[in-house]
């Protein structure tokens, strides 16, 4: 799809290219990502992010010379777009929010539940992690959502309106992207490090 846009839409404006990319390319890369999005396979994470790298070069008419064009992070800032790895997490959290607030016909308590009691986790309404034995089960949706959900602030989680929740969540991820995202540091491409499974540690791996 990106090749089709590059062949047929090379001469249109930047805003139009951005809209086409989000509508035709990025939407394919996000379709049902709650099911298939890679979590720990570094090779697959690089392949997916590579598609968006090429898309940002196309949108901004960047030179093929690496020394001339802005780097990937700068291009994402100019376009106000999240990296795909963060965007998949954004989609995961939005879907879980919909499940929690009955937008979807899924009973969340059958898969995970909120910690109760007088601990700090209970006060913050954190989710209780399940015990897992295999990486396949660990990376399934209702298990991998636990650290993602617990990691965002309680103010965002308790937002009542879905539209406001999405805006606040996007701002959270964009600020996180500006502060932490490193092109060569794939450990920062996910909330949970793909290598050592640590959560938001500054010096993981």
Can you give keywords for this protein?
single chain; 205 residues; mainly alpha; 11 helices
Précis, in short:
By secondary structure, this protein is mostly helical.
Write the layout of secondary structure elements.
Elements: H1 2-8, H2 14-30, H3 33-36, H4 42-59, H5 72-79, H6 84-100, H7 120-123, H8 135-138, H9 141-151, H10 154-157, H11 162-180
Q: What this model shows, in words?
A:
The protein is mainly α and 205 residues long. The chain has 11 helices and no strands. The longest helix is centred in the C-terminal third of the chain and has 19 residues, at 162-180. The protein is globular, with a radius of gyration of 18 Å. The model has no long low-confidence stretch (mean pLDDT 85).
Helix percentage range: 55-70%
According to DSSP, the number of beta strands is: 0
Largest sheet: none
- Overall mean pLDDT score? 85
Number of helices: 11
């Amino acid at each position: 799809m990106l090749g089709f846009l590059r062949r047929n839409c090379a001469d249109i404006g930047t805003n139009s290219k951005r809209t086409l990319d989000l509508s035709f390319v990025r939407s394919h890369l996000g379709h049902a990502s709650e099911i298939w999005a890679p979590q720990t396979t570094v090779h697959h994470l690089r392949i997916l992010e590579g598609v968006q790298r090429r898309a940002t070069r196309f949108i901004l008419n960047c030179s093929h010379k690496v020394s001339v064009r802005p780097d990937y992070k700068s291009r994402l800032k100019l376009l106000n777009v999240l990296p795909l790895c963060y965007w998949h997490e954004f989609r995961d959290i939005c879907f879980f929010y919909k499940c929690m607030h009955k937008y979807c016909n899924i009973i969340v308590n059958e898969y995970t539940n909120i910690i109760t009691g007088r601990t700090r986790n209970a006060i913050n309404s954190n989710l209780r992690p399940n015990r897992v034995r295999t990486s396949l089960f660990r990376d399934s949706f209702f298990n991998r959502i636990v650290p993602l959900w617990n990691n965002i602030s309680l103010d965002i989680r308790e937002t009542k309106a879905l539209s406001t929740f999405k805006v606040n969540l996007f701002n959270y991820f964009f600020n996180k992207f500006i502060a932490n995202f490193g092109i060569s540091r794939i450990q920062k491409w996910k909330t949970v490090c793909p290598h050592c499974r640590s959560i938001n540690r500054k010096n993981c791996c």
